[in-house]
Structure formats: C-alpha cells, structure tokens
Design a protein that fits this description.
Two copies of one chain form a homodimer. Chain A contains seven helices and ten strands. Chain A is α/β, with parallel strands linked by helices and about 260 residues long. Chain A starts with a strand and ends in a 25-residue tail after the last strand. At the A-B interface, α1, α4, β5, α5 and β6 of A face α1, α4, β5, α5 and β6 of B. β6 of chain A pairs antiparallel with β6 of chain B.
Chain lengths: ~260, ~260
C-alpha cells in the first residue's frame, strides 16, 4: 500500500495562520518534503514551520524547483522531483509537501502532484487548504476583498494595463499579483482612474516582513520586493440585475440575463 | 482603554481548518459574539467551534443579521448589532466576532466593523485571516484554482450568463458563487462552451456535509443547497504577453502593454 502525498498548506508566512489540520499533520508520522530554488537554498515553507518552533526532521527531503519561466527547465525539475519522491511513497510512507499559502493557488504542488500520478496512478493525493497571501493582506490592511454580491478578479499585473482596463468595469475588487515590473505605470493608471484612494499596496503579505502602504503614490520610482501585490476597490462598478437564490425557481430563469 | 473588535475567521466549517491564531484567540479572555439569522437561531460559525470541541461561554453575545436582501433592514440590523457591542468594547473587554470562512471575503464582519467605528472611532479592529470556502472546495476536489500566471474570477453566478460569457475569455478559472438560482442554464452554457469536463460542483464546501459532483450534467433539474458553488477551468484562454518581474526595470516599461 503506497503512502499518500499530502499538501500541507501553511499560509503566507505567519505561523499563526497555519491551520490546525496542517499543524497536526506536521506532528504526525509523515516524512516532510519542501521546495527550494537551488540545492541547499532557503525554503520559505520550511521557514514558516521553523518560526512556529518545530525542528526540521533529519530525513526531510529537499525538492529543487528553479526560479525560471522556461517551461522545459521547469518540466524537467517537476519530473525529477516526482522521481525523487515516488519511491518513498511506494515504500508506504506518507509524504507531507510543505507549501506556502494555499496549495491550490499559484503553487508548485499542482505540477508535482500531476507528475507523481503520471508515474504511479495508485498514489493518493490529499490537500489541506490554507490561507492565501492576499487574504492575509486584506486582513492586515483592513481591506474588504468582497462585500455581499461583490466580484473579485485575481490577476497577475504583468498582463498589463490594457487587460486591467478591460476587466475594471466588471469587478468590485482587483487583486493584482506581482506588481513589481509595472508599479509606476500602474500607479499612474490608478491616478487616471481616480482609484488612488482605493488601492492598498502589500509587500510580503502575511510574513514577518510584511509592509503595507496606503499612500501608493509614495511608491513611485521605488524598487519593491518581488512578492508585492496591490488590492484595488472599484466603487464605480455598475451592477446588473441579480438573479436571487431563494425567491425564484430554476424553471423560471431566462436564458440570457444580465 | 476600549477593547478590540477581533474577527476570528474560522474557515468554511471543518474545525481542522481553523488557524492556530484563531484557535488561540478562542481560548483567550475575549468575549465571544456570533451572527445568527433570527433570535435563538443556529449559528454556522458557532457550530464550527462546537464541532472543534469548545464549550460556548455563557456570556457569548448573539447578533442578529436577518436573511434578506433589503438594504434598509440590513443597515438597521448592523446598526443594532453595533450598538449592542460598542458598550462591551468601551468597558474595556476584547470581543471576538466568530465568522465562517474568511472575514474579508463575503462576510458580515465588514459592515459590523464599519458601524462600530462610526459609533466610536477609537475602537481598534483586528482581523485574523481564514480559509475561504472556495479554497476548501478546490483542495477537497483536487481542482487547482490557479497555476503560474493564471487569472481567477470570483463571481456570484446570479449576475447571469451574459456576464460569464464576457468574463470567460479573460480567465483561467471561474469561481461561481451561489449557483443555485441558475444551475440548469449554467449547465447548458458549460455544455455549449465545451467546459462540462472542466467544471466541479461543490455544495457546502468545507463543511461536514460537503458534496462534490464531477458529472455536473447529472445535477440538471436537481434542487441544490443555497451554499453551492462551481469551479470552472477555461483551457481556451488566450494569454497576452507577460511583463516579467525579474528581468526588466520599472523605467523600461511601456505604458499601454497587453
């Protein structure tokens, strides 16, 4: 009987945001594995459990996922990591993959699990959900992500301002990930939209080095960290009519409503 | 010195998804308050801590938020709840507001905190972030919400199919909240888009009664629970060029990129 591959989502960095289930799993019999950028490199995920006061077991397995956008290099790294852990799983031991944030949201775990199941379809995968970084940013910045019936778009800022311009009318909240490469034009765009007062900049959300900036204009020209996001409220969204749940029957629904 | 109003996000229902910080806060000296739909009614949030094995303190305060979309009735309820708790806070005791899911995401807490600070601006508000229901749905259904550079839209389904049709080309993942009122037309729309195999239906995500349905077509004509969502992958999204973070300097960015 093969062991299970279990993703332990640890939240964005604050050990207080580890869930009780992940915490319990960390104290259990499963062997740990964790991602690093290069051999012997620092692991964010491992840093979270260390800050929580846990000792790293000697048999914890380092998996290398290089910092690159080259899809072939990445695919090779995922395949190598899967080949590394499949024998451990096949020997019957559960493996806990330590992951920052939430394992379903912008995480390497998705690729790793896919590769592992390609190698051995009998290996069961389990995921312990966690707190995503932007939820921690919203909490720490007292910035509501969504009120009743609101819409949220979570978009890497790198798709550019034209894309944001197209999305803005549809959303009450934009969560812009990785704003670093276009921070200055983004600030100008927010100013042009009259949204400067509606934006919150958060660097390293949910980590001990978290920085929250309300006066986003003050960031112009600054070199910010790679792990930087912006939350933007759009008070100008025009809402269409809503089809409510409790008062209408499915049979009474029109087909092409707005 | 007034007490603090602290939102304890408890996750979607599984007591294992309570964070360590919220768990610690629940064992602390703060008085509890929790939302109900009507006097003496069942509280989902309270149910989570009860399932976690905690006893409800005798001085826990019930706050009534009626199940209605009438904005005046709701505003009165928020104001009444705020008037109920402000004296407790002014007397110096911390108050823990128990909230399902994440307090920043589709939660009553936003309104309550606003009303409390309108009554007494000196009252400090803190938020402990939590796991949103759709993250639990994704984990339990092994459904990745976002891979690298993906885009996510979180949209109440009630805005209708025309709205979804407009958003689809921009997103890799749609998280459709409250699908009940238009489940049948939504299933037909997914079929027409060739997305039936890319959809996952989850009822009462992250609760003990969670139900996951992969064959969404089988739901046609069924009356599902009010707390039902659908996760939809869109493998057909055409991606624009991305502006990468690590290789370019902010000064080198063009202004209107796609």
């Amino acid at each position: 009987m093969a062991g299970r591959l279990i993703a332990a989502s640890l939240g964005p960095g604050d050990p207080g945001l580890i869930t009780r289930r992940a915490w319990q799993a960390l104290q259990g019999a499963a062997r740990w594995c964790y991602p690093v950028r290069r051999r012997g490199g620092r692991s964010h995920a491992l840093g979270i459990v260390e800050r929580a006061g846990l000792a790293v077991p000697e048999d914890a397995v380092e998996l290398i996922f290089p910092m690159t956008h080259d899809t072939e290099t990445l695919a090779r790294a995922w395949a190598r990591a899967a080949q590394q852990i499949v024998p451990i799983l096949q020997a019957g031991r559960d493996l806990l993959f330590l992951v920052e944030g939430d394992a379903s949201t912008f995480s390497t775990f998705t690729y790793l699990a896919r590769m592992v199941q390609q190698l051995d379809v009998s290996i069961a995968v389990e995921i312990i959900a966690g707190v995503p970084a932007y939820n921690a940013a919203a909490a720490d910045g007292a910035f509501p992500l969504a009120e009743t019936d609101d819409t949220i778009a979570i978009v890497p800022a790198g798709y550019g301002l034209q894309e944001l311009e197209a999305l803005l009318p549809h959303f009450d909240t934009l969560v812009l990930m990785k704003v670093k490469p276009l921070l200055d034009p983004l600030i100008d765009w927010l100013a042009a939209q009259g949204l400067l007062q509606e934006a919150l900049f958060v660097e390293k959300a949910g980590t001990p080095e978290e920085r929250i900036v309300r006066d986003v204009m003050s960031l112009k020209g600054e070199k910010v960290n790679y792990l930087s996001l912006m939350l933007v409220r759009n008070p100008n969204r025009q809402r269409g009519t809503m089809i409510r749940g409790c008062k209408q029957k499915p049979a009474a629904q029109p087909q092409g409503e707005a």
